[in-house]
Amino acid sequence: MARLADYYLVVTYDLDKRAEGEGQGRILQRFPEKDWEDSPFPQGVELFCQPSGWQLVPERQPASFFVAVLTDINSDRHYCACFTFWEGLDNPQLKKAEAGEVDEADDELTVVQPAQVFAPKSLVLVSRLDHTEVFRNCLGLIYTVHVDGLTVPMETVVGNLLTCVIPIAGGSQTDESPVCSLDQVPHDGACDWLLASLQPGQQEKAASLRTITLGAGDRQVIQTPIDDALPVSGSTVAQLFRQLGIVNVLCLFCAALTEHKILFLSSSYQRLTDACRGLLAIMFPLKYSFTYVPILPGKLLEVLSTPTPFIIGVNSFFRSETQELLDVIIADLDGGTVTIPECVHISLLPEPLLQQTQTLLSMVLDPELEVADHAFPPLSTQPSALKIQDKEIRGVFLWLFARLFQGYRWCLHIIRIHPEPVIRFHKAAFLGQRSLTEDDFLMKVLDGMAFAGFVSERGPPYRATDLFDDLVANHVERIRQEETCPHKVMNHVKELAEQLFKNENPYPVVAMHKVQRPSENSQNSAQSQTPFPMLDEVTVELFIDHAAAKLKTAPPVVKAELKSMVPSGPPLGDTVDRNGNVMANSARRLEVVRNCITYIFENKMLEAKKLMPAVLRALKGRAARVCLTQELNQHVLQNRAVLDDQQFDYIVRMMNCTLQDCSHIDEHGIAAALLPLVTAFCRKMGAGITQFAYSCVQDHMVWATMQFWEAMFYSDVQNHIRALYLETEEGEQQNNHVSTIVPLRMEEQDALGDGREISALELASEQSRLWPTLSKEMQTERVQKEESTVFSQAIHYANRMSYLLLPLDTSKNRLLRSTGLVDVESVSNSYVTNSIAGSMAESYDTESGFEDAESSDVANSVVRFINRFVDKVCNESGVTNEHLKALHTMIPDIVQMHIETLDAVHRESKRLPPIQKPKLLRPTLLPGEELVMDGMRVHLIPDGREEAMGLMGGPPLLPAEGAIFLTTYRLIFKGTPNDPLVGEQVVTRSFPIASLTKEKRISVSLPMDQFIQEGLQLRSCTFQLMKIAFDEEVASDLAEVFRKHMHKLRYPPHVQGTFAFTVGQSGKMVVEHKTKDKNQSLKTLSKNLVKSAKRTIGRQYVTRKKYSPPTWENRSSFQSELDEDEISVSEEVDQSSLTLSSTMRSSDRQTMSNVVERACCRDYQRLGLGTLSNSLTRSKNEPFRISTVNRMYTVCRSYPGLLIVPQSIPDTTIQRICRCYRQNRFPVVCWRNPRTKGVLLRSAGLHAKGVVGFFKSPNTPASGPSQADSISLEQEKYLQAIISSMPSYSESSGRNTLSGFTSTHMSTSDSSDKLRQPKIGALMKQVMGAKEEAPATFSRGGKWGSIRGSGRLSAYNPDVGTRLAGKESPQPNGGPSEAFFLRQQKAYLYIIGDKAQLKGGKQDSFQQWEVVPIEVCDVRQVKNSFKKLMKACVPSSSTSEPNMRFLRCLEESEWMALLHRVLQVSVLVVELLDSGSSVMVSLEDGWDVTTQVVSLVQLLSDPYYRTFDGFRLLVEKEWLSFGHRFSHRGAQTLGSQNSGFTPVFLQFLDCVHQIHLQFPMEFEFSQYYLKFLAYHYVSNRFRTFLLDSDYERIELGVLYEEKGERKSPQVCKSVWDYIDRLNKKTPVFYNYMFSPEDEEVLRPYTFNSNLKVWDFYMEETLSEGPSYDWELRGWQERVAEETLDKADSGGPKSQRRIVWPCYDSLSKVVPDAITKLLQDLQSLEAELGQTSEKWKDTWDKMKAAQRTECKLESKPSFSSSLLMASNLSHQRRSQGVYLQESGVGSSINLAMDHEASATSTPVAGRPSTSTLYSQFQSTESENRSFEGILYKKGALLKPWKPRWFVLDKTKHQLRYYESRQDKECKGVIELAEVESVIPGTPTMGAPKNIEEKAFFDLKTTKRVYNFCAKDSMSAQQWMDSVQSCLSDA
Questions:
Q1: Rounded to the nearest 10 degrees, how much is the dihedral formed by the CA atoms of 1681, 1687, 1691, 1695?
Q2: Once rounded to an integer, what is the mean pLDDT over residues 493-511?
């Protein structure tokens, strides 16, 4: 029984304590005055009466009522019912007079005046029961008595109210007399039992009905619920759903269960309370245990920022204050919205539950939805009444919880029964059996406070049960069968709803409410009412005391609760297995596991080994793991199973594999089942030393998880306690012969008749039932027995934990690393240092006491961990303090003892031979390469390349086991495949450490034998990827050291730390400079150059600091700093003289020849671009000169020292011009077209400031010559000088005639020029980014690519480009009109510039140059594109997604598009140069794209660059001398690490490769040569591609050392030397198809469809690693031969060989025919003991022989033409088809189709190549020692004619041609026949105006030749040259 109301109080507005506008309430009266003992008076009620604050109002407001809820410190809820009405009073601001003096008449008058205001007054009931309606009625009645002036004394009403006692819940108060009948009390009757109104049989009904009257003629029936465990909701739940909707309420429901903060807003207080009550009702059976304030007063709003979860209601009036709450879910009841902040993630119910729940709720709330589409909807589908609907919704939630928690009782551990049951819930097992471990929602709910309360409340096995217990135990089967059929579920829900409704309204019939309401007129009459009266306290107290006395005398109520055993329901296992996902064909797998274990124990090891891989795969499945534990259990006898080494190893591997997939909470109980086994299986190691399995299975998270140990401990304790009671019962039964304790009541035993074991909970329930009947002694005895059981288990577990937590080698900190063992509070220093200790121990001083601290530190952390565990479990299971203390003293001893035993085991285990791990293979190293870290055992894991995994056929070569080696040069993996079929093959993967682009940690779980910890994924820009997983034997600190070393080697602080410099220097990273150098003069030159350069640059560089070009960001500022300083200084230097010799000391002059010998100079001389004779005098008539302005690298740091500039431009001008260009890279000439004399220039883009000035016409009026203007004028001069140097310009009559630009030269040139002209327009448009229809114009546009011949362009559509045609015809491809850049006159100079840079420039119509703006690819684009290309070619993991397929990734990388762009621009430039114009390429900084374009143009235009020497020269000149930033772009040092790897050079090589594919006969070198360069340009093995410019190379002293003597002959510093040497030995770099046509200009196709992916990116040779380090190849071949010889002894040898893709090197296993023949020849010679000839000589002989044969045969046969290029281009083509390296290229096929008709007859007029001397005599430049024009007198009577003479030292002859361009030799004078050369005299018909000394005669044995040179000087030169040839001979 309970009081209906604890306190009654009147709260009024406090006039004395008003702050401005803010009033306060004060309690006017309160009854009873003193607190009840069982429920103290709640503080702060006055705040809750007026939650929005106490205020006076000008108008009377209607009375209001709401219930607020307060929670006291014991978390009991008090319901405060507040009834508020408004009383008039004089406005305190105006009326200072006291209220008492005003009489009634006046009072009435004041109503009209604004002077009167209304103050609130509240009547409050405080109760612990929640009967809202009753409270409303009672307070309403009191108000009515006051307002209507009823005759009843107020004291009586209040007294009756406070003394009314009602039952809390229905149930068993059957025949008790009324507790307190107030008849004796004066005044009307008080509460009484309404027994009279009931028939005699209905006593139970009476129990939950109570009629009360307050003595004012009122009657109320209170219905108390039958079971007070179920919440009472009225219609609040239905109301909540109506306000917010289904989804929103479900959201709030999940938020409340997962402990989020929820805030309700509404303008109605009662609705706030109802909503909160509704939300709590649907959470049943969980109880909300956090802050719960349905109505929060405005004064307490700061409560909302509390960190704990809450459910709070606030008036919408305070909405603005709630806006800034970041983590609160706000539900607006009036607007029907729920707002979830971004940072809050609500876990929703798991599917399919969420969907099913929503469906059911909509069936309850909106039954019409289902039939809305029916043609004949049922007549009535109205939802039930609100009250019923409310219960139906709650039914749905009960059904939901029954599904969520089904089987929870099977996961309860009972750890104590007496004196109180202690129960724990095994969360992991519950989640595991429900297979919901991944489910966020359930995890959070089970971790929450509400669920903890649920377990402690519903856990005890013997208690009263309710609706939920019944549902979750007895209806599981029904719920499971119906869950898919909503209508059946609906019926179930309706049944539940009925029970809930009945519980709340046991007897809806009895409704006897008779409560008076205030009459209408009294409520709104304007007459002022009397203030609410004060009550007489004595009278009320009397009532209360009287009732209290009466209660004391009444007999105590013994409510015999109906306790019973709580049913558990069906066990979980069954319920899930029927519908859970059982693994497919698991029976077969379990069979495999069982067989394997049997084999192991029967010692059939071979059988076991075969099954092992299958077993390890099977152990992924849960069933197999359970099966393993069961099987192993059978082999344990008396807790022990001794195995031999191999058995032990297998069992441990299986255990590790089983544990590897266990999560740290061990939801399937696998680790729990293995725990007893790991301490049972062992092997004998030596005298008295046994190693147990636990020392080998420690590396799993689960052992370091506290929850796991707790769950294990509790389940063991439960088993022991169960055993304890089963024993006592059996024992007592036997002793007494009379069964004093019946284990179970008979009917219960029948229920369990199937003979299953009694569960611990059933046993506990029985014990709890008997507890009260036991004697005191028996009770204490049982408590003690239980306590000591728990204690002994705690000791046992302390031992077990020390077994699994202490690593075998206690000096290692292995476990501490991977687990949470080290508690956060106490991470000691030694823990941190310990991990580093392994590798760096030598760096610590021994005094730090590190050694001793080591082992004890592991011990300490283990002791701490075990102590924490023991404290927790012992406190929870009630172990006495003495026992706990004893445990704490024991634990350190246990750990120490265990460490000692482990030490012995560890010592022995080191002696054991490791079992069958493949032995580590050592890699071969290059000379000078040294190991930095010895091999660490790793597994190489397959990445996304399918060949190695065997997916493309062939055995899987990966995964492989081996070791990773880190050397100073490479990272090498060497090992053997795991697959036994290929176990004897060797797998090698390696890449240069310098090419590492990305390294990331990965964690690897493979179906391998061991549990592998961690791995690395290493990506290299040589298109290699290594995914390695460290073997368990590699300590993690070692792996860390490995990473550190790798980074150190990858990014040395300075270029001198790279392998190319440190090679052979005993592994230390040497950054010292060499002290002594033999080649002193070289050294002094470089020193002086550097010194003077430094002096020039100014003091900002400290002596040794390396110059790094400024970065993009700070370039402008940097430039300006340098500008003034640099230029002024250099001008001073230059005043003295401009010659090189004058500025250098004589000692250094000799070394100048080195500069001259640099590649560029040799090339400039070859091209006739200026000579440096000894006297350094220049012949003035040369248009260009070699300028030494940059000899100190002061003008431009990144240019070479010697530059080609126009003859007419002085050096001072250059110094000024260079400022306009980025990085000072002003335009210089790098190549001249020998036919048209057009030149190719390169420069950087202009500085922004220079652009506009650049295009200003010189005569713009300016206010005074500004500097910019003068510079732009000089720039114009410079460009004009270049234009003037072109013969075509000087020949045409200057600038004034804009006639047709037909110079003599052009008209005489071959007719194809005219056809070629339109093409440029089309090209130009394409390049400049016209619409993308360009390919269409091309496909019509005749045969390009590798097609050659004079009829080439006949099919070309002349409309395509209108350039030079003079017509402005509209463009067929919709491009823009070409008026702007295709003027009618061809420009002399085209400037290829960057579109972005050339904005704002105006083209001057009279200038002779023209700008072609193109879009250029940014370096960043190249970098990103390359990254994507690498991922496409070498994916890190295989994927089946269509978006990740190779071709899609390749396309997304845009690599091919970038190649297309570069090639396209290059072809345009080639065309322009070929048409006779000059071109200046001026893009970005002039060292990336510019370099690519310029080099490609030269390669396409000049056949010399397609030979070995030429290509080397091209790279040295354009890439190295002109300062491509190799180190920076290759990120070779620490400084450039952040800039990342940008393969500009690789892109160039790829372009060359594309051209090579289309023109396979034009290149002397093979594709392999390009791959070789591509590999070594990033490998850092050679110094060639290091550093960013010649200046830096000089500074380091590496520029000229290649010429000096080499210290160690085996170490090559230059890649070119290496290639030369290799080329002598083997033809691998040589292209056998090389048969060039002279002067051939190549024009490759550039469209994406014509480009091929370079196989360099895709190929891999796992047998030997990359083939680009030849020393290694030779060694491997020798080894292979030796092994073959050994194997020879057996039977007959098969000739067949299997070649695997990605394993074998195809070129080696299946060489091409010629290579094969050459090899065979060599081996035959070796066998015969002859000295073998060099392959090149052999090849040359063959070709010579072929040539003579060809001459003899009238019709060349195909066989002969195979080696010999004949003059038939048809055969040339076919030869291409047969010989081409990589299958048939598309371009060649095209060629065949097009040319079939054109070239079936030999083309006339083409010189036959065979007439020339074998062109394999290296190069043209050596053949022509001296050449020029001489007049020769013809034979008798013939006139003098100018001829082009060539003096050839090599062939010892003087040849002459018709003209310089002519290919066919007109005649030959053999020098062998020449007797003398003498000055001659002019004869008849000789050329006029030539001095006498210009004539000379050549006397041969046959006749005398008369010659005439242009002047005496050249005549002298000719005579000298011939003479020197003769004397040489």
A1: -30
A2: 78
